[in-house]
Amino acid sequence: VNHLLGIKYITKADIDLIFETADHFKEVINRPIKKVPSLRDITIANLFFENSTRTKLSFELAEKRLSADVINFSAGASSVKKGETLIDTVNNILSMKVDMVVMRHPNPGAGVFLSKNIKASIVNAGDGAHEHPTQALLDAYSITKKLGEIAGKKIVIVGDVLHSRVALSNIFALQHLGAEVKVCGPKTLMPKYIESLGVKVELNLRKALEWCDVANMLRVQNERMDISYFPSTREYTQQYGLDKELLDSLNKEIVVMHPGPINRGVEITSDVADSSQSIILNQVENGVAIRMAVIYLLASKIKQQ
Ligand code: CP
Fold it and tell me: Residues of the signal sequence (predicted)?
């Protein structure tokens, strides 16, 4: 397979190989010269049809650390605004001898759709509420760096699971790696199919936190809800917000994660986000090595063709 469209489509062996490769690149980017010449013959287009800070910059940096040629495209400043279709847009970019496409798109399944219509490797950088595979890989990788391994660990994903591509990709990745996964949040923010994925739902945040080794606190995706949504932000924070008092009252020290961007004071307070139990910035740091690994492994397949 020459794409990374979702964690659902890959195996534990694929994840293990990505992690091994990321270990190598993590060491490389800590050297004084952070760059390797591996992909001097590869050109990558980063196509962002939706806003991003971490994913966009992390992919660009990963590609540059591998010495690939990189072009960046933001839909808002492009001819998409004049009505050009997704396939026309991408085929025009590919005709400039581009080998790989990294794409973020607001529509679930956009990456899968594109993979059936173009001739290039595609990496999904987030498609609507479907998948965000490199986020799940960097999350799982960050847990292994913090706790040694994932098999047998208890991990709770808290919050707006309904609108979250991060939740879905994390569930698939963590299950591949042998973790026990629960989700916690208001019923209105749980997809109906969630238990069919083999995860248990816990509605009470304290109980979920007392059970887990790791809590991944999701962002409340206000942009995907209207103002009549229940719970309101204030009600959400009262029932599902993690503050220092709650964190310190638990019977053990748990690891706190968040994919970013954080709504400070909504999902977590600043003193939790910035505490020694938080690995939020380690997640961002590890994202570069993980994305280098994904791109390197896909490019190796292109070169074999
Ligand atoms: N975690 C994440 O995807 O952040 P961005 O939306 O800033 O890329």
Answer: none
Q: Whose CA is nearest to atom 3 of ligand 1?
A: 55
Could you write out the DSSP letters of every residue in 173-185? HHHHTT-EEEEES
Domains and CATH numbers, the chain: 7-131+287-304 (3.40.50.1370), 133-283 (3.40.50.1370)
User: Under a CB-based contact definition with an 8 Å cutoff, are residues 286 and 22 in contact?
Assistant: yes
185 lines ligand 1 (CB under 6 A): no
Average pLDDT over residues 59-73: 97
CA atoms 172, 166, 2, 67: torsion sign:
negative
Query: Does residue 228 register a pLDDT over 90?
Result: no
pTM for the model: 0.96
Residue nearest ligand 1's atom 4 by CA: 54
Q: Is 156 left (phi over 0), alpha (psi -120 to 50) or beta?
A: beta
Asked whether 53 lines ligand 1 (CB < 6 A), one says: yes
Burial (CB < 10 A; 0-12, 13-18, 19+), residue 240, is buried
Ligand 1 pocket test target in 46, 47, 54 with most atoms within 8 Å of CB: 54
CA–CA distances in Å: residue 194 to residues 147, 200, 220, 263: 26, 8, 18, 24
pLDDT tens digits, one per residue of 178-188? 999 999 999 99
Q: Is 119 annotated as a binding residue?
A: no
Residue 131 identity: E
The ipTM assigned to this model is 0.98
**Of 185, 230, 188, whose CA–CA distance to 209 is shortest?**
185
